[in-house]
Each structure stands twice: as structure tokens, then as C-alpha cells.
Amino acid sequence: MLKFSLVEETPKKVVYKYYPDGDGDAGVVSYDKELKTNSIVTLPAKDKHQRYAQKLFARIREFANSNTFEKEGTIAWY
After folding, report:
1. Is 63 exposed, middle or buried (0-12, 13-18, 19+ CB in 10 A)?
2. DSSP character for 62?
3. CA distances (Å), origin 67, targets 43, 47, 64
4. What is the pLDDT of residue 42?
5. Strand 27-32 to 37-42 pairing
6. For 4-29, what is the mean pLDDT?
7. Any alpha helices (H) in the chain, and if so which ranges?
8. Bridge partners for 15 per DSSP
9. What was the pLDDT predicted at 78?
10. Cβ(13)–Cβ(26) under 8 Å?
11. What is the pLDDT of residue 34?
12. Distance from CA of residue 45 to its chain's centroid?
């Protein structure tokens, strides 16, 4: 599970903080709306294999397809 929150949205990019396991140190990712690419800005210790970041990247691509970036949310999987 991870929680995420929107930090910044501009016409060119969005930036999200995310919390692996819902708490602790936050990671930061960004999405370039023009290039349609994701990047990791800060990787938290709990996400050394980038598993949580990749889950958030998939959700951000869904947001980009609908052009609606949620302010916060939770992603859970089994």
C-alpha cells in the first residue's frame, strides 16, 4: 500500500509525494506532461527497489490519460 499527495501542478508537470506503507519518509516523483515521462526526484529508504514508485507511475499515467490529477489517494495491491 502507498499513500500519495499532489505537491505541485503546472501546465508542464506534476509533482507527487508518496509514502510507502502509508507512513514514514516520503519519496517524490514528477511527471512531465509534454514528454509524458516519469522521474524519481527523491527515493525513500523503504523503496530501494522502486516498487512503490512504479505503482504510482502507473496511476499517474491513468491521471494523464484523463487529464485529471488527483490531489491525494491510496493505492493498495495484494
Report:
1. middle
2. H
3. 26, 27, 5
4. 96
5. antiparallel
6. 96
7. 51-66
8. 8, 30
9. 83
10. no
11. 96
12. 16
User: In this structure, what DSSP letter does residue 8 have?
Assistant: E
Q: Which three cell numbers stand for residue 67?
A: 487529464
Please report where in the chains the cell 517524490 appears, as a residue: 28
What's the one-letter identity of residue 21? D
Give the global pTM. Answer: 0.94
- pLDDT score at 62: 96
Give the integer Cα–Cα distance in Å for 19 and 4: 6
Q: What angle do CA 55, 58, 63 make, to 5 degrees?
A: 125
Contact 25, 44 (CB under 8 A): yes
CA dist 43 and 68 (Å) reads: 25
Check if the beta carbon of residue 14 is closer than 8 Å to that of residue 6. yes
pLDDT of 17-67, one tens digit each? 999 999 899 999 999 999 999 999 999 999 999 999 999 999 999 999 999
